[in-house]
Amino acid sequence: MSRFIRLGSFAVLSLGLASVVGAAYQIQPFGESKATVVSGPEHWVPFEADLVVTDAQGKVTTTGRIYRSSDGSLRQDSFAPAAKSSHTVIFSIQKRMVFYLRPPTAPSWEAYPLQLPKAGYRPKRQVALSALKQGSKQTIAGFEAWEYARGGRTEDAQRVQVAPNLNFYPMGFADRQSTQTMTNVLLREPSRSVFAPPDGVNIIQRFEPKRLGIFTREEVLEFGAIR
Question: Is the pTM value of this prediction over 0.90?
């Protein structure tokens, strides 16, 4: 069994995760306003995929692996060889915990409480078509993805490509400095063992939870490829 060491307080993060395999998304009118929406699957879609981050010159700076289960749990491993650093972040919906490992600067696992919505943690079902960039539909790793601008419609805004069939999961990010893309996506249930630290390791317990989906800029930078 893993051993928990209780030390002080901290700051937690959280992400969004997956739905029913093979369920096609739809574009349809919504409500009296007849606004057009893009609809995705009702349940979380489990998958595994590779991650690649390149800089503005196209050089690969970070590689990684992402896992997501049918209950919404997520794990992301990322490796930056030039910086000799790696990150592992696990969002365990079942345990309501976030596990974090960042050697060599943080060689021990850390555990943070994950505060989920009282109504339950469910995937995003619909996005207004007006929020997506017109004509931006493209195919990434075999999945149709739509682009929107995070941070406004300016040249400095981050461009995010979301896949409706993966519960609008972001398959790509791009800005002036770097590009992150998912590749080799496999629609299957990952092993449950990947959503927890290995047995027998020391885990430092932290306490100060945040609401799901809330990040500061510093946390985004600290946790590397996790957005």
Answer: no
